[in-house]
Amino acid sequence: MGNNIVSKSRGVARTIMLDPDSSDARFESGRDYMDEKLKQLHLNAGRLSGEQKTCGTKMRHPTEEIAKKVANKMNARPLRKYDVEPYPCPFCGMWHLGRTMPIDVLKSFAAEKE
Ligand SMILES: [Zn+2]
Question: What is the DSSP letter of 98?
């Protein structure tokens, strides 16, 4: 009782649905970047997944901004199997694109392996 209303969307990694034409302008605002906590979570999960899976032959992007732009283009494809999002790589120090992962999944993944 009392605390029944929990925002389900709060802890979920943001899946950003942007109009492809306006995406660049929006990213310039810099408001959609990952916060430090989420970044650490990604780095942890990446480390636990191993270099092959996290880094391997994946395309490397030097900054989150660039990775976001590429992700945004990919997410605009009507025939995509899933949405992607950038994540920081603990192995090469750059950014890769991976399947969008809710933060809860990321957390439980990192917790499971510890
Ligand atoms: Zn890497």
Answer: E
Q: How far is the CA of 3 from the centre of ligand 1 (A)?
A: 41
H-only helix segments in the chain: 23-28, 36-49, 51-54, 64-75, 103-113
Q: What is the pLDDT along the chain (114 residues), one digit of tens a residue?
A: 555 554 454 444 555 554 444 444 444 444 578 889 999 999 999 999 999 999 999 999 999 999 999 999 999 999 999 999 999 999 999 999 999 988 888 888 777 655
Of 19, 45, 18, the C-alpha closest to 32 is: 18
* Token pair recorded at residue 111: 């917790």
**Global pTM value:** 0.68
Ligand 1 centroid to residue 96 C-alpha, Å: 6
